């Protein structure tokens, strides 16, 4: 087992404590504030060291999780799906903090290792039965043609159906009141893909459940 440096160890302990309280890993800003770093670069380097030493896993830009072999270091297990922020289903807006608790729902571990939830803002996807305020479930894999993708584009988030075109990619709203967004191949290479919409959560009489998208 690779030994942690003092800085890595302090960050690791903070991550464990934060996770136990909020059921999520701390954001870059949380870690900066805790340790007084003036930029995110120091945090980035420390996180990458924890990945290399198999304390964390990394699945895409900024998407870290506790390594399966290290979950025993948590004092308790938290069922559910982490809520990692909000996403626009309308006009695009800036991404929001990734510390919004968790959905108290359980999925078979083999299916839900990296699933996470986002809260929908806007009505551009209502014809896909995605309403303002819905909790949607995201699988962090790239969307295929015709699937609904969650992306970060130009510093802003959006949730749209992905349509592959010869001259690029079209982000298609599922509401006739909104216009599609065309992205050239060069632009598409520069965006961050959060993942693919696979379902959403519902709440009735205080109980939570999940409904998955078919097809």
- Helical residue percent band: 10-25%
Distance between the termini: 43 Å
- The coarse overall form would be globular
CATH-level-2 architecture of the largest domain: Ribbon
Largest sheet: 11 strands, mixed
Q: Count the strands?
A: 13
Beta content comes to 25-35%
Structural class by secondary-structure content: alpha+beta
Task: Give the C-level CATH assignment of the largest domain.
Answer: Mainly Beta
CATH homologous group name of the largest domain: Umud Fragment, subunit A
List segments where confidence is low: pLDDT < 50 over at least 5 consecutive residues: none
Order of helices and strands: HHHEEEEEHEEEEEEHEE
How many alpha or pi helices? 5
Q: What is the number of independent domains?
A: 2
At the third CATH level, what is the topology name of the largest domain?
Umud Fragment, subunit A
Q: What value does the average pLDDT take?
A: 84
How large, in whole angstroms, is the Cα Rg? 18 Å
């Amino acid at each position: 087992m690779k030994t942690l440096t003092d800085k890595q160890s302090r960050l690791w302990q903070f991550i464990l404590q934060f996770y136990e309280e909020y059921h999520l890993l701390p954001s870059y800003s949380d870690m900066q504030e805790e340790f007084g770093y003036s930029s995110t670069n120091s945090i980035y380097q420390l996180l990458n060291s924890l990945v290399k030493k198999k304390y964390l896993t990394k699945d895409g830009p900024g998407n870290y999780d506790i390594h399966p072999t290290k979950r025993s270091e948590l004092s308790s297990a938290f069922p559910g799906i982490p809520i990692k922020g909000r996403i626009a289903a309308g006009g695009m807006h800036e991404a929001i903090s990734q510390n919004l608790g968790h959905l108290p729902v359980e999925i078979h571990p083999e299916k839900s290792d990296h699933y996470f939830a986002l809260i929908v803002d806007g009505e551009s996807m209502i014809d896909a039965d995605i309403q303002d305020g819905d909790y949607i479930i995201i699988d962090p894999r790239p969307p295929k043609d015709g699937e609904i993708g969650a992306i970060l584009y130009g510093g802003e988030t959006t949730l749209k159906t992905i349509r592959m075109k010869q001259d690029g990619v079209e982000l298609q709203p599922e509401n006739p009141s909104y216009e599609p967004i065309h992205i050239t191949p060069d632009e598409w290479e520069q965006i961050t893909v959060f993942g693919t919409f696979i379902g959403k959560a519902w709440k009735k009489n205080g109980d939570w459940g999940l409904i998955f998208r078919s097809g």
